[in-house]
Amino acid sequence: MSYVNxxxxxxxxxxxxLIAKKANEQxxxxxxxxxxxSVLYCLRTIGPMTQKEIWSYLNVEAxxxxxxxxxxxxNGWVQRRQGEDKREKLVVLTKEAEKKYEEINVKMLKFEExxxxxxxxxxxEAFSHLFRMFLQQ
Length: 137
Hints:
The longest helix has 25 residues, at 3-27. The protein has 6 helices and 3 strands; from the N terminus they run ααβααββαα. Helices cover 69% and strands 9% of the residues. The protein is mainly alpha-helical.
């Protein structure tokens, strides 16, 4: 087994933690954490979703998403609405969240650009390709 294979998962995990830490610094002025931003991004990109759809999409355990949504709801970022089925609750962005979203997204896109500035476009494409493959497993 090569050195790369023995340490790749650890390196990915450490990189993800570092990115989350730096993202939290960017999101602090908005009173958000990266885990909360992931939910907001998901809802804005995909649209209203059930909690199950959110945790499935984000590959996060249900209790974690439940707590995150509860905090977002308490802080006015999301609300739960009745779905088509009476038992189904959809999570949606509030009007206030919709207004603030673009400002936050611009900041996060700039953060991403700065974070990846030293990488060649080919490297970024390779990262993207490999992560898509990994997520499809």
